[in-house]
Amino acid sequence: MAIKCVNCPLRRRDAFLPMTEEELRFQQRFKVGELTVEPQTQILMEGSNSPQLFTALHGLGLRYKILEDQSRQILSFVFPGDFIGLQAGVMGEMGHSVRATTRMTLCVFDRGELWNLFRSHPDRAFDLTWLASSEERFLGEAMSTIGQRSASAAIAWALVKLYRRGAMVGLAMDGVMELPFRQRDLADALGLSLVHTNKTLARLREMQLANWSEGVLTVPDLAKLEKAASGVSATPAPRPLF
Fold this sequence. Notes:
This protein is of the alpha+beta class. It contains 9 helices and 12 strands. It has helices at 21-30, 86-91, 114-120, 122-135, 137-148, 151-168, 183-190, 194-206, 222-228; strands at residues 31-37, 42-44, 52-58, 61-66, 72-78, 83-84, 97-100, 104-110, 172-173, 176-178, 211-213, 216-218. A hairpin with a 2-residue loop joins strand 11 and strand 12. Helix 3 crosses helix 4 (122-135), helix 6 crosses helix 8 (194-206) and helix 7 (183-190) crosses helix 8 (194-206). The chain is globular. The model has no long low-confidence stretch (mean pLDDT 87).
């Protein structure tokens, strides 16, 4: 059975802002069910339209765009609590694709209720605007990282960001986090070659800063990895949950 919004396990995480009882009641009316998809399932396709919007309840995925030369740019990594499909809900079609990396459970929302949200809950509508802008944040920060950091520092930066995201939703503890993405995904997010990414990860492992193998990321000392990244922004503030 679908989990009721009031019992959502994500609400217990410090990563997310609290919701009022009224907001929870509207959220429950907004939610029409849950969908479970297997790894590598295409959830949304660039250029498509969808009558549904989603929140990742469990599992991990990727937002990406296929460029003119058929190469792939990873826009961001999807974690539990991320809202998916807002671009199609507002603009009519997706400007990027979303694919499941692991088995995922998605909360499903009726896109037709989106405008009721804007009319009746302007504060929550502002939260959606905030989420829309944050979707592109990883890409923007990654582009700045490419221009300002060495490959070692760029990959260290990305691993710190991913580890912190995982820690905030209960996926990382005591320096260990399941990270089932591929090295190719990280390379495509940072604009690096797969060979360069592989060699740089090996260098970070030799320096005992981070070890990412067989889908598990181990960070012996997060502060040292942050230093190797030439500075990382503060731990993300709590974000809205839909």
